[in-house]
Amino acid sequence: MPDLLSEAERQELLPPLGEAGWGADPDTDALRKIWKFRSFSEAWAFMSRVALLAEKRNHHPDWRNVYNVVDLRLTTHDAGGLTRLDTDMAAVIDRYAGAAEVQRDLAQEIQCLCQVQRPGHSNGPA
């Protein structure tokens, strides 16, 4: 089982990820990032690439997809929090996202393209 990140490692590894849009999910000691793609197909292609990476590394994200939006969390469950597996994987995942928009405010409600295109539509699940 990999070791949890030390405080020194957190100070070294997390700020660059924060600059790239990764935020902390303090309830689960996880990294979280939300991407908005131009279409469902682009979001699905991104998820497919991430899924292949996850299988290769045997390290799988927690994620949610609604139409063009992918909300992804990385944590090492058997270690009980963040490890280098998570920070290393986050850096690779970022390369797969291309020009997708990043939602930096993780507290903001996620709104997919289908909701934006239909004014007056409730923000419930799509």
Automatic annotation (TrEMBL):
Gene3D superfamilies: Transcriptional coactivator/pterin dehydratase (3.30.1360.20)
Keywords annotated in UniProt: Lyase
UniProt xrefs under InterPro entries: PCD_sf, Pterin_deHydtase
Enzymatic reactions: (4aS,6R)-4a-hydroxy-L-erythro-5,6,7,8-tetrahydrobiopterin = (6R)-L-erythro-6,7-dihydrobiopterin + H2O
GO molecular function annotation: 4-alpha-hydroxytetrahydrobiopterin dehydratase activity
GO terms under biological process: tetrahydrobiopterin biosynthetic process
Organism lineage string: Bacteria, Pseudomonadati, Pseudomonadota, Alphaproteobacteria, Rhodobacterales
EC numbers for this chain: 4.2.1.96
Pfam families in alphabetical order: Pterin_4a
The protein's name in its UniProt record: Putative pterin-4-alpha-carbinolamine dehydratase
Family to which this protein belongs: Belongs to the pterin-4-alpha-carbinolamine dehydratase family.
